[in-house]
Design goal:
Length: 490
C-alpha cells in the first residue's frame, strides 16, 4: 500500500503524458489524412485535365484527317494529304492515352469504347477507302465527298466527344468536392485535436506546477532558510507520495540539525566556561610563582651568589605562560557566539585599530597609508581585532628598515576584498596556509615575540563573518594579507 501511494505522482504524470502523446498522434494522423486527400484531389484534377487534353488532341486529329482528305479529293495534290496521313498514323496512340487517362467510371469507359469503335469505322469504312478511290478515280471520289458521309460520321464522333468531356468534368468536380469535404473534416478534427493537446498540455503543466513544482520550490526555499541558520523552519508533510517523503526527510534533517545545534551551543558554552575557569585557575599558581620569585630575590638576593639570573628566568617563563594562557582564551572565544551584526564603517574600525597600535607604530617609525574603505555588515569589535592583528604583524615582522603598510579595499562581486600589505620579511609561499593555524610560528621567540595565535584569531573571525582570508607573499618582498566580507548594498 505504501509503495502504491508513493508512486502515484509518477503514475499520473505517465498517464497524462501518454494521453497527450496519443492525442497529438491522432491530430497528426488526421492532418496527414487531410494532406493526402488534398494531394489525391489534385492528382484527380490533373489526370482529368490530361484526359481532356488527350481527347481534344484526338478530336483535332480526326478533323485534320477530314480536312486533308477533302483538300486532296478536291485538288488532287499530295501536300493536302500529308497532315491527314500523319494524323492517321498517330490517332491509335492518342486513343489509347485517352482511354488510360479517363476516370474508372463505367459510363466513361463505355463512352470511350464507343468513340473508339466509331473512329475505327470512320477510318476503315470512309477515310482510307476514299483516299484509295481519289487516287484511282478522282471524279468518283469527288462525287462521294459531296454526299457528306464523312461529315456525318465526324459529327457523331464529336457529339460523343462533347458528352465524354462533360461527364469527365462532372466526375472530376464530384471527386474534388468529396476530397475537399474529407480534407476539411480531417483538418477540422486535426485542429481540434491540436487544440485539445494544448489544453491537455496546459492542464499537465498546471498539475505539475501545483502538485510537484510548488511543493519542491517550498522545500528549496526552506532549505535556503535552513542554510542561513533558521533551524526552526519546517515544511508541510501531510502528503502520502514522493513529495511527502521529501518533506518528511527535510523535516527529519531539520530536527537533527536543530538538536545538533542545541547540543553544539551547550558544548560551546561548556568549552568557553572551561576555558575561562582553566585560565583563571592557571593564572593563580603563576601569580604565586611570580610572587615567590620576587620574595626570594628581595630576601635572599645577596645570598644567591649570581642566582638572580635564575629568578629572572622564572619571572620571564611565568610571564610567557600568562601570555600564552591569555592568547589561548582569546582564540577559544574568537568566532564563537551569535554575531551582533550592524552596519560597520571599516574606516572607523581601522582608526580604532591604529590608535591601539600607536605606540608600536611610532617606535618602529612605520608609515601607514589608508585608502577609501566601505561600510559592511559585521561586528565592530571583532573586525577591529582583525585589522589590529594584521597591522601589528606588518609593523613587527621587518628586516630592520622602516615599515611601510598600506590598507585598502576593492569590490569583488557580492563581496568586498580588504588587504593589508607590508614591505617586511615575507615568507615561503609553502607556509601560506600553515600560518593561519594556532601556535604556528615561522621564526623563533628570540627574533620576534608572540605566541603565533593572532592570525588564527583573524581566520576565525573572518570565517564567522562568511568570508575567507589568505596571504600572497615571497621571502624578502613583503606580504599582502587579504580577506573578504559581504558587501552591504545601499
Amino acid at each position: 500500500m505504501r509503495r502504491t501511494l508513493r508512486t502515484r505522482i509518477t503514475t499520473r504524470v505517465v498517464a497524462l503524458s501518454v494521453t497527450g502523446s496519443l492525442l497529438l498522434a491522432a491530430a497528426l494522423v488526421l492532418l496527414i489524412v487531410a494532406v493526402a486527400g488534398q494531394r489525391d484531389a489534385s492528382r484527380t484534377a490533373f489526370r482529368s485535365q490530361e484526359a481532356l487534353t488527350a481527347g481534344s488532341q484526338l478530336e483535332k486529329s480526326l478533323i485534320t484527317i477530314e480536312n486533308g482528305l477533302r483538300g486532296y479529293v478536291a485538288s488532287g495534290r499530295e501536300r493536302f494529304l500529308a497532315p491527314a496521313t500523319q494524323a492517321l498514323a498517330s490517332y491509335p496512340a492518342e486513343l489509347r492515352a485517352l482511354t488510360r487517362l479517363l476516370s474508372e467510371d463505367p459510363g466513361q469507359q463505355g463512352l470511350a469504347r464507343r468513340i473508339g469503335g466509331r473512329i475505327e469505322d470512320y477510318v476503315t469504312l470512309w477515310a482510307r477507302p476514299l483516299i484509295a478511290l481519289a487516287r484511282a478515280r478522282p471524279p468518283a471520289a469527288r462525287s462521294v465527298v459531296i454526299t457528306g458521309g464523312g461529315r456525318e460520321r465526324l459529327g457523331a464522333i464529336r457529339a460523343d466527344f462533347a458528352r465524354l468531356f462533360e461527364r469527365e468534368r462532372n466526375v472530376a468536380r464530384a471527386r474534388e468536392e468529396r476530397a475537399e469535404q474529407r480534407s476539411s473534416l480531417a483538418i477540422a478534427f486535426g485542429v481540434g485535436g491540436l487544440g485539445l493537446v494544448f489544453v491537455v498540455a496546459a492542464g499537465i503543466a498546471l498539475y505539475l506546477r501545483r502538485a510537484i513544482v510548488r511543493p519542491v520550490v517550498t522545500v528549496a526555499h526552506a532549505t535556503g532558510r535552513l542554510a542561513e541558520g533558521q533551524l526552526s523552519v519546517r515544511v508541510p508533510a501531510d502528503r502520502e507520495d514522493e513529495i511527502g517523503d521529501l518533506a518528511r526527510g527535510f523535516n527529519a534533517m531539520a530536527d537533527s540539525l536543530e538538536s545538533s545545534q542545541v547540543e553544539l551551543e551547550r558544548s560551546n558554552r561548556e568549552l568557553e566556561q572551561f576555558a575561562s575557569v582553566t585560565s583563571h585557575d592557571l593564572q593563580a599558581p603563576l601569580s604565586t610563582i611570580s610572587m615567590y620569585a620576587e620574595l626570594l630575590e628581595r630576601r635572599h638576593g645577596a645570598d644567591l651568589d649570581g642566582g638572580t639570573s635564575l629568578i629572572d628566568g622564572i619571572r620571564d617563563a611565568t610571564q610567557q605562560a600568562r601570555t600564552l594562557i591569555r592568547d589561548l582564551l582569546e582564540y577559544s572565544r574568537a568566532g564563537r557566539g551569535q554575531l551582533r551584526v550592524e552596519a560597520v564603517s571599516i574606516e572607523t574600525v581601522v582608526e580604532t585599530a591604529l590608535e591601539a597600535l600607536a605606540g608600536d607604530i611610532e617606535e618602529a617609525g612605520a608609515q601607514v597609508r589608508v585608502g577609501p574603505l566601505p561600510v559592511v555588515p559585521g561586528e565592530r569589535t571583532n573586525l577591529s581585532r582583525v585589522f589590529q592583528n594584521l597591522v601589528g604583524n606588518a609593523v613587527k615582522f621587518t628586516d630592520g628598515g622602516p615599515p611601510e603598510v598600506a590598507i585598502g579595499a576593492e569590490r569583488d562581486g557580492r563581496a568586498w576584498r580588504f588587504w593589508v600589505s607590508d614591505n617586511g620579511i615575507g615568507m615561503d609561499p609553502r607556509h601560506a596556509e600553515r600560518i593561519f593555524e594556532p601556535f604556528q610560528r615561522l621564526h623563533g621567540e628570540e627574533a620576534y615575540a608572540g605566541t603565533g595565535i593572532g592570525l588564527a584569531v583573524c581566520a576565525r573571525i573572518v570565517e564567522q563573518h562568511g568570508g575567507r582570508i589568505w596571504v600572497t607573499t615571497d621571502p624578502g618582498k613583503g606580504s599582502v594579507f587579504s580577506f573578504t566580507l559581504s558587501a552591504q548594498e545601499a
